Structure formats: C-alpha cells, structure tokens
Amino acid sequence: MSPDPSPYDAVLLVSFGGPEKPEDVVPFLENVTRGRGIPRERLEEVGQHYFGFGGRSPINDQNRAFLAALRDDLAGAGVDLPVYWGNRNWDPYLTDTVRQMAADGVTRVACFVTSAYSSYSSCRQYREDLFDATDAVDGAPVLDKLRLYFNHPGFVEPAVDATLAALADLPEDVRDTAHLAFVTHSIPNTMNDGSGPEGGAYAEQHRSVMAEVVERVREETGRRHPHELVFCSRSGSPQTPWLEPDVNDHLEQLHEQGASGVVMVPIGFVSDHMEVVYDLDTEAMATAEKLGLPASRAATAGIDPRFVSAVRDLLLERAAVERGEAVDRAAVGSLPACWDRCAVGCCPNPRAERPALAGA
Ligand SMILES: CC1=C(CCC(=O)O)c2cc3nc(cc4[nH]c(cc5[nH]c(cc1n2)c(C)c5CCC(=O)O)c(CCC(=O)O)c4C)C(CCC(=O)O)=C3C
Ligand SMILES: [Fe+2]
C-alpha cells in the first residue's frame, strides 16, 4: 500500500534564491537587503563574490537538482504529489508559485524550507514571506511549513560521512589529529538570543549537531577530534556584535596553537551555495594555504538520498499529525524533534513585527 500524504495535495520547496547572470546580481542584492541597513561596502564586496562566479549563484541549479531527486524519491515510494519550487529573493518567486498552485487547484501544501535551524533569518523570515505570498493570491492554498530538521538523521548522517571523507582528503600524517571546524552562517548576537521558543536555539541546535557528528566520527575512527563551532559570512554594521569566531580567525588561531590540520564541516548549509563556494572554498581555503595549515572541506547534504528522503519522512509524519494519528518523529542527538508550529514569540523579527504563516 502506498503511504498516505493526505491532507496534502502538493509539496513546495522553499528556498533563498540567487542570481543567474551578471545583470541579476544588483537587483538580487537589493531584494535581499531592502530595509536591512547593510553597509554599501559590504554589498559591493558581496556583489564581487557573485561576479567572480560569472554572476551566477550555484543555489538555483542545486534546487533544480534537489527537485528532480525529490520527485524521483516520492514517485519511487508511491507518493503521488506534485512538487513546486519558490524562492524568497529571486525567480521563481514564492508569490508566482503560489499563484500557479492556486490555478492548478492545489488546496493544502507541505513546505520544505532549505534552512534547517531556528532563527529569524533561517525560519521566521521564510514564514513571513510565505504569508505575503498567500496574502497576494486569491484562493491561495493553505501552506504548512514542515518542522526544522537540523537533527533529522537524514541531515546528520550525510554530515558524518562527509566529515570522514574530508578527513581522508587530508595528508595521512595529519589526519588522526586534525581539528574539526563546524561552520555556519553568522547572525547578530541579538538574533541568536531571540531564536527558538526560549532563545539561544540557533547556536544550541548547531552545538547539538556538532556533538553528534563528533561522536559518530569517533565511533568510526576511534578518535574524538578537537572541534569548535565557527562562523562565516558576517555582514551588518561593524558596531553590531555577530556570532564569533569567524572561520578565518579560527584558522589563524589553530595555526598559532600548532594544529596539524583542519576539516571545515559546513553544518549550517544544506547545499554548496555562495557562502560555501566563496566564503569557505575560496576565502577560508586561501587563509589556510597562507598559513600552511592542511585543510579540507566536508560536503553539504546536497542531494544525498538520505537527505532527499528526509523530506518524504517529514511530509508523511506531518500528514499523519494533521490526520490526528500518533507519529514517531525521527531525531538524533541531545535535542528532541522540533515542533510543527512555531510559538508566538519564536525568532522575533528584529525590526518590526510582521504576520507569518505556520505559527501556533
Ligand atoms: C542564517 C542565514 C542563512 C542560513 C539559512 C538559510 O539558508 O536561509 C543564510 C542563507 C543565505 N544567505 C544568502 C545570501 C545573502 N545573505 C545576506 C545577508 C544576511 N544573511 C543572514 C543570515 C543567513 N543567511 C543575515 C542575518 C544577513 C544580514 C541581512 C539580513 O538581516 O537579512 C546577503 C546580503 C549581503 C551580505 O550581507 O552578505 C546575501 C546576498 C544565500 C544565497 C546564497 C547564494 O546565492 O548562493 C543563502 C542561502
Ligand atoms: Fe544570508
């Protein structure tokens, strides 16, 4: 018997979006930073990262690959639902996709967001944009956001294997003693303080994933590698404190301490988008090279079949919840599986309160 996805009649992949050609770069950055107070110099610098890659972010192609993999996964499991895609900041925009779903007669949608952790930027901002999209479309379907999945085995297990593979990429004589630098996007300290229902969830969730990966790597290699949670892609005003240490400063520090080598594990990101290919593969790798510190980078989850099928698991789990059935929620590490609907004060907007979907 095929699994039952009712009451859902569609899945929506929700992502950030990125430019695809040089003319897109400035309008994309304007979309992202509207009203955000990002200094001009920072924007010019980030624009250069995109121009350095021909004006094309890798993120949309990664989402296209993910869509194809997800459609195959669902079809293979006998889940017969259409899968749509919409972005917050670039074409295909969420509003256009919601309009298409309405035209196709879709009524209730399970939304999978390409962002695994709690925080305003990684959770509530998506919920606000989902609200805006449904608000703009007559007869819009009901959109439910699938729960956060940082501790879903389908997200954590690929990170463990990727860390083992990246250790194997290091020269043999430094492999056993190498440090693990778990990397995520920096956010303002105040945004971390407000994240999750009780605050501090962003850093706490990352630390939990880090501890789980370190332990599982130990089970495989017999070594508990020294490790740290570090941050990349800081923006905003220099006067505003953001989460630290920056990955580049951390590499300098490791070098000073006489570390043998380092693996960067980008647990904050689900695919190799610009923060990964520029901030880690280009900038942080150049820092490591300058220091003479052997370094490698672990793969992101990308289209790992375990990650793709995690979407199906989350969809079927939530469908059962909505039908009033008891569910077993997959989760690994020290934290329980996340809630389905965010609490009222969860991850507040740092500027002004805005309506958001998928709340309690
Ligand atoms: C937590 C977090 C994630 C991870 C969760 C998730 O995945 O959503 C994330 C993802 C991403 N961020 C991205 C791009 C950008 N983020 C910016 C700015 C900002 N990000 C922030 C946070 C996050 N961002 C914050 C607090 C700001 C400051 C402005 C504000 O308060 O909003 C800026 C403006 C320039 C700059 O300041 O860097 C850009 C261009 C892309 C696309 C990459 C590509 O094109 O491949 C992706 C996936
Ligand atoms: Fe960002």
Explain this structure to me?
The protein is an alpha/beta fold. The protein starts with 9 loop residues before the first strand and ends in a 38-residue tail after the last helix. It folds into two domains: 10-149 and 303-322, Rossmann fold (3-Layer(aba) Sandwich); 153-297, Rossmann fold (3-Layer(aba) Sandwich), CATH 3.40.50. The chain is 45% helix and 11% strand. The model has no long low-confidence stretch (mean pLDDT 96). The protein has helices at 22-33, 40-52, 59-76, 94-103, 120-135, 153-169, 172-175, 189-193, 201-221, 247-256, 274-291, 305-322, and strands spanning 10-15, 83-87, 108-113, 142-145, 179-185, 227-232, 262-265, 295-297. The chain binds coproporphyrin III (HT9) and fe (ii) ion. Residues 16, 18, 29, 32-33, 36, 38, 42, 46, 57-59, 114-115, 119, 121-122, 185, 187, 233, 235-236, 268, 273-275 line the site of coproporphyrin III. It holds the Pfam family Ferrochelatase. This is Coproporphyrin III ferrochelatase. Its EC number is 4.99.1.9. Belongs to the ferrochelatase family.
Query: How many E-type strands?
Result: 8
Provide the CATH architecture of the largest domain. 3-Layer(aba) Sandwich
Order of helices and strands: EHHHEHEHEHHEHHEHEHEH
**Biggest β-sheet description:** 4 strands, parallel
Measured distance between first and last alpha carbons: 33 Å
* Nearest-integer average pLDDT: 96
Individual helix count? 12
Helix content: 40-55%
Ligand names: coproporphyrin III, fe (ii) ion
Rounded to an integer in angstroms, the radius of gyration calculated over CA atoms is: 20 Å
The helix-and-strand class reads alpha/beta
CATH names the topology of the largest domain as: Rossmann fold
Organism: Nocardioides hankookensis
Function: Involved in coproporphyrin-dependent heme b biosynthesis. Catalyzes the insertion of ferrous iron into coproporphyrin III to form Fe-coproporphyrin III.
Pfam families: Ferrochelatase (PF00762)
Keywords: Cytoplasm, Heme biosynthesis, Iron, Lyase, Metal-binding, Porphyrin biosynthesis
